[in-house]
Design brief:
This protein is mostly beta strands. It has a single domain, classed as Sandwich (Immunoglobulin-like), CATH 2.60.40.10. It has one helix at 3-22, and strands at residues 32-37, 43-44, 48-55, 58-59, 69-76, 94-97, 103-106, 111-120, 126-132, 136-140. Strands 2, 4, 5, 6, 8, 9 and 10 form a seven-stranded mixed beta sheet that branches. A hairpin with a 5-residue loop joins strand 8 and strand 9 (126-132).
């Protein structure tokens, strides 16, 4: 086999392998993630209690292999979603709830903020298709 053909073959195998590694777990078509509270446009005070909603799937801690389940990630003031074929970042704007939590209390600076949920699988990978809530805006007093 020529070097060129070998290079093409290796590249094709790597692409196929990468797709398998980076693909999120499958999500049922009727699955939905949403923010129960606060509601869009609500004025709140610290600590802000955020309750996570999920239908059509279950919640499981990160690292636990369980079909049709995942754990929540709260996106705070994120303008654009990350690439959904990569693990969810972990920083002040991407809060991980790998213990399977369904609510949290957070401290936010006074002012306007956006909140959004992204469900991810045991490896912090968004599901396929991605389960992303509607983005809400709140005002913190």
């Amino acid at each position: 086999m020529s070097a060129k053909r070998l290079s093409i073959l290796v590249g094709a195998v790597w692409c196929a392998f990468s797709a398998l590694i980076w693909a999120g777990a499958p999500a049922p078509d009727d699955a939905k993630v949403y923010i129960i509270s606060p509601t869009d446009g609500e004025t709140v005070t610290n600590p802000v209690v955020v309750r996570f909603g999920l239908s059509g799937m279950g919640v499981a801690p990160a690292g636990i292999e369980k079909a049709h389940s995942g754990h929540h990630h709260l996106l705070i003031d994120v303008d654009e979603l990350q690439a959904l074929d990569r693990p969810v970042p972990s920083d002040d704007n991407h809060r991980h709830f790998g213990g399977g939590q369904t609510e949290t209390k957070i401290e936010l600076a006074p002012g306007r903020h956006t909140l959004q949920l992204l469900l991810a699988d045991k490896n912090h990978m968004p599901h396929e298709p991605a389960l992303v809530s509607k983005k809400i805006t709140i005002e913190v007093k």
